[in-house]
Design brief:
Blueprint (H helix, E strand, L loop, with lengths): L1 H25 L3 E6 L12 E5 L2 E5 L13 E5 L4 E5 L13 E5 L2 E8 L4 E9 L7 E5 L11 E5 L2 E8 L3 E9 L4 E5 L11 E5 L2 E5 L2 E2 L2 E2 L3 E5 L4 E5 L24 E5 L2 E5 L10 E5 L4 E5 L11 E5 L2 E5 L2 E2 L2 E2 L3 E9 L5
Keywords: Kelch repeat, Repeat, Signal
Pfam families: Kelch_1, Kelch_KLHDC2_KLHL20_DRC7
Protein name: Galactose oxidase-like protein
C-alpha cells in the first residue's frame, strides 16, 4: 500500500512538472499595441521624426514611385490624434531619405541623407514659432563626410550625429550646439562601424544598438555620456555571448533598420530585423542592462519605420515591406496584455 501511494505521488509530481514547463513555454508576452489614426501624408519609408513640446513632426522619406524622394512635413497632435501639414523643406534643400533628425532648444533639425543620386551633408533648422506653418533655415553643414543611414539624437541643447554610410561604414560622431550654431567632433563610438543602427536616450545618456557592418549584423552595444564625452560598452545583443549565468541571453536582437523609443525609464526596439521586415519588440532596463521580450508589433512586419515619444507615450509609424509602403500609426502600452480588439 505504501509503495502504491509512493508511485501515485511520483506520477502526480511528474504530471505537475510537465504542466508547469508547458505553462512557461505557452506564457503570453506582455504589451498591447493600439492602432491610431493613419498618417495623412503619402505612405513612405526611411523618413525622419522629431518632437517639440506636445507635437511630433514627420517628413522626408521614399515612397517607391520612380525613385522619388520626399520633402514634405506633417505635425502630429497626439492629444487629438490629428495631423496637419506644415512647411516642407525649401526647394533648395534636396528631397531625401535616410536622413537624421533631432530636436534641441525648441527647434527641430534635419540633415544628411540620400537624394537618389548623391549622399548629403546639408542641415536645416525648423522653427515652429515662425509663421502659421513654421519655417526652415539652413544652418552649417554637417562637418563629417556626406552620408546616409546615420543616427541622430538630442540631449539638452545639443544634437548628436554619427555612424552611417559614405561609401564605407562609419563610427565617427559630431555634436551640434544649438545655442552657438556650431559643430564639433566628439569621441567616436567604440566597437564596430555601423549603418542603419538604432538609438534612444534615457536619463541624459544615449544607447546605440543594432546596425550592419559590411555583411555582418553588429552585436556590440554602447552607451554615450555627454558629460564625459565617453562611450561605455553594454551587454552584447546576441545569444551565448555573456558569461553571467544569471543572464538569460537565449535570443538575438541583431539586425538593422530597427526603430527605438522610450517610456517610463525603459528603452524599446521594434520592427526591422536581420535581412527581413520584422515585428519583434524588446524592452531594455538600463539599470540591469537586461532585455525582456514583449508582444510583437501588431501592425504588418516592416523595416525603416520611424518612432517617437510624446509626453512619455510612444508611437511607431510608416515603413515598408518589400514594395508595400505604410501610413499606419501605432502606440504601445508595455504593461498591458495584448487586446486584439483595440
Amino acid at each position: 500500500m505504501q509503495l502504491s501511494k509512493m508511485l501515485w505521488w511520483i506520477l502526480l509530481s511528474t504530471i505537475l512538472l510537465f504542466a508547469a514547463c508547458d505553462d512557461d513555454d505557452d506564457e503570453e508576452l506582455l504589451g498591447n499595441w493600439v492602432e491610431m489614426g493613419a498618417f495623412e501624408g503619402i505612405p513612405r519609408t526611411d523618413a525622419v521624426a522629431f518632437v517639440i513640446g506636445d507635437y511630433a513632426y514627420i517628413g522626408t522619406g521614399y515612397n517607391g514611385e520612380e525613385d522619388e524622394r520626399l520633402r514634405d512635413f506633417w505635425r502630429y497632435d497626439a492629444a487629438n490624434d490629428s495631423w496637419r501639414e506644415v512647411a516642407a523643406l525649401p526647394d533648395e534643400a534636396p528631397a531625401r531619405n535616410g536622413a537624421v533628425a533631432f530636436s534641441a532648444n525648441g527647434k527641430g533639425y534635419v540633415g544628411t541623407g540620400y537624394d537618389g543620386d548623391n549622399k548629403l551633408k546639408d542641415f536645416w533648422e525648423f522653427d515652429p514659432a515662425k509663421g502659421d506653418n513654421g519655417q526652415w533655415t539652413q544652418i552649417a553643414d554637417f562637418p563629417g563626410t556626406a552620408r546616409y543611414s546615420a543616427i541622430g539624437f538630442g540631449i539638452d541643447n545639443h544634437g548628436y550625429v554619427g555612424t552611417g554610410y559614405d561609401g564605407n561604414r562609419l563610427k565617427d560622431f559630431y555634436r551640434y550646439d544649438a545655442s552657438s550654431g556650431s559643430w564639433s567632433q566628439i569621441t567616436s563610438i567604440g566597437g564596430s562601424k555601423r549603418r542603419d543602427a538604432a538609438v534612444f536616450v534615457l536619463e541624459g545618456k544615449a544607447y546605440v544598438f543594432t546596425g550592419v557592418d559590411n555583411s555582418e549584423y553588429v552585436t556590440d552595444a554602447w552607451m554615450y555620456d555627454p558629460e564625459s564625452d565617453s562611450w561605455t560598452e553594454k551587454r552584447e545583443i546576441t545569444s551565448n555571448t555573456n558569461d553571467d549565468e544569471s543572464y538569460d541571453d537565449d535570443y538575438s536582437l541583431a539586425g538593422s533598420n530597427v526603430v527605438a523609443f522610450t517610456m517610463d525609464g525603459c528603452g524599446y526596439l521594434t520592427t526591422g530585423g536581420a535581412g527581413y521586415a520584422g515585428n519583434s519588440t524588446w524592452e531594455y532596463n538600463p539599470i540591469t542592462d537586461f532585455w525582456e521580450e514583449k508582444t510583437n508589433f501588431e501592425g504588418s512586419s516592416r523595416s525603416d519605420a520611424l518612432a517617437f515619444s510624446i509626453n512619455n507615450t510612444p508611437y511607431v509609424a510608416t515603413g515598408n515591406s518589400s514594395a508595400y509602403y505604410f501610413d499606419d500609426v501605432w502606440t504601445f502600452r508595455p504593461g498591458e496584455e495584448q487586446d486584439d480588439n483595440d
